[in-house]
Amino acid sequence: MIDAKNITFTYDEEEPKKYVLKGLDLHIKRGSFVAVLGHNGSGKSTLAKTFNGILLPSGGTVYVAGMDTKDETKIFDIRSTAGMVFQNPDNQMVAAIVEDEVAFAPENLGVEPSEIRRRVDECLETVNMSEFAKSSPSRLSGGQKQRIAIAAVLAMEPECIILDEPTAMLDPKGRSEVIKTIKELNKSRNMTVVLITHFMEEAAIADRVVVMNHGRIEMDDTPSKIFSQVEKIKELGLDVPQVTELVFELKKQGIDLPSDIITIEECHRAILEKLKKGTKND
Amino acid sequence: MFKDITIGQYVDGNSVIHRMDARVKILLSILYIILLFVIDSIALYAVFGVFTAFLVIISRVPFKYIIKGLKPMLYILIFTAVINLFVTGGETVLWQSSLWKGLKITKEGLTIAVQMVLRLVFLVIGTSLLTLTTTPIMLTDGIEKLLKPLDAVKVPSHEIAMMMTIAIRFIPTLSEETEKIIKAQKARGADFESGNIIKRTKAMVPILVPLFISAFKRADDLAIAMDSRCYNSGKKRTRMKQMKMTWIDAAASGVMIAFSVFVIIIQRF
Question: What is the pLDDT of residue B169?
Fold first, then answer.
């Protein structure tokens, strides 16, 4: 789906030391759910922006569905294939009415009016916001606005959706709404999802986690394998999900638990089993 | 306090006037204004008054909104009346000051003063009827469509409409932000309420500076978000909502044109 080949990026060509991306390769498979983690300034947002041609890599090439992002004649195909949702829900809305906002992208692409109508209704349905079609975005909560932003991208019928810290400015309730929507898209519509985040709990639901550090990919594996390396994650200035932390601490105390636990349910089950066994032994 | 500001002053409704096409409404409003400047006899003003009252009644906009539109005009109306009343020269003197011979009211002055006031009143009522029955979005769409033919002479009709749409969209966002900044500055001891006008104006600087900085940041983000959704300033762009003219528009245009012809004929003879 997305293929980044040895890409480098700098905002300032004259200052080669300031490279934000220092030569990384990443291949994202169709239908996968990839979370990109990294502390502030690790280059994860910059990387995301190279995926739809908003930023062009200083060196190397990014291919989106086989199209080179440097190819200006294909830029609209690239951007409608890889849709992008941003952090601030207020700053990415163009229209003063929800349905007009969702219609914006297909209008830009020159889609037939009746087809736009169909897409708008369908996309609002997908993110569960149909009842707000006629309202003004300024009256919605952060989570609702972000779901509208997702619908607005879906209206281009992309094959891949890139989300650049979509939950960073939301409250916990809005956060779970948005994450649920994203997960649903990946599972039921087989949409390729790239989720840039710094919430470990969000990364834990992905199929694959890529950890970035100083413009390079530091780790790249399944969430359970990544988060079991608690010490290394902490070294990179990141946290592990609370559950993983708990398991890690328990193991340090000599309690033998599997190290690939990342969800609350798994942890619950493992501890319960341990406790049962423990009482039998006594 | 800022959250409920509505730009324009749209009053929701489903009257015949509400259902008219925005383009037709704008054009007919322009015709209404032109007519207003064509007529100059008191009798025609009376006819005009009846016609305007008819429009207000069928629009079903509560009368208080019409009055609200006129309120800010009060001083201008008084000023216009007074100036016209005393400055216009004429033959038939109705009243003359005993102290200074130059201060007098003539019949002609009185007529012009009344006409000017009525003209302004109708002007405000007519144009507010347009904004009271049309949402800002419909207005901008209408303006875009009407300006479209001017593309030939390089008037960026789509860009103008896009700017207006974005401005409308960001009014609630920026007013919320202003409110937040005011609170933040107050919490640090800023004083916006006391002192003379210069002092109070100066106190606005710490509000405006952060507001501008954040507005630029927002503009930057918005531009990237628009780029990401393939925005290409109007080239090959389609619209989801197509404007459609119905029998209402035809009927309204008919009524307005008949009325204009009637007024102009009477005016001529």
Answer: 85
The answer, yes or no, to whether residue B110 has pLDDT greater than 90, is: no
pLDDT at B4: 42
- Selecting from A52, A90, A137 the residue whose C-beta is nearest the C-beta of B228 gives A52
Cβ-nearest to B172 among A92, A110, A138: A138
Q: Is the pLDDT at B206 greater than 80, yes or no? A: yes
Residues of chain A with pLDDT under 70: 16, 279-282
State residue B2's pLDDT score.
42
Whether B223 shows a pLDDT value over 80: the answer reads: yes
pLDDT of residue A279: 64
Q: Which domain holds residue A270?
A: 241-282
Residue A2 is assigned to a structural domain of this protein: no
What is chain B's mean pLDDT, rounded? 86
How many interchain CB pairs under 8 A, A with B? 99
Residue A273 in domain:
yes
Is the minimum CB–CB distance between B215 and chain A shorter than 8 Å? no
Q: How many CB atoms lie within 10 A of CB B134?
A: 23
User: What per-residue confidence (pLDDT) applies to B137?
Assistant: 80
> Which ranges of chain A does DSSP label H, i.e. alpha helix?
44-50, 75-81, 98-108, 113-126, 142-154, 172-189, 200-203, 223-227, 230-235, 242-252, 264-281
**In a shared domain, residues B115 and B32:** yes
Instruction: Check whether residue A159 and residue A249 sit in a common domain.
Output: no
In which element (H, E) is residue B208 found? helix B205-228
Q: Are residues B164 and B108 in the same domain?
A: no
Q: Is B172 on the interface with A (CB under 8 A)?
A: yes
Q: What is the pLDDT of residue A281?
A: 55
Return the residue in A11, A79, A92 with the most chain B beta carbons within 10 A, the one to mutate for interface testing: A92
Strands (E), B16-163: 93-96, 104-106
Segment (H or E) for A85: strand A82-85
Residues A250, A174 within the same domain: no
Q: Which helix (H) or strand (E) holds B86?
A: helix B74-87
For residue B14, being part of any structural domain is answered with no
* CA atoms B157, B22, B27, B236: torsion sign: positive
Query: Do residues B224 and B250 both lie within one domain?
Result: no
Question: For A116, which of B169, B222, B238 is closest by C-beta distance?
Answer: B238
Best of B6, B173, B174, B228 to substitute, by most chain A Cβ atoms within 10 angstroms, is B228
Write out the H or E segment, with its range, that includes residue B44: helix B42-59
Does position B269 have pLDDT exceeding 80, yes or no?
no
**Which residues in chain A are contacts of B234 at CB distance < 8 A?**
none
Average pLDDT over residues B180-202: 86
Domain extent for B128: 22-134+245-268
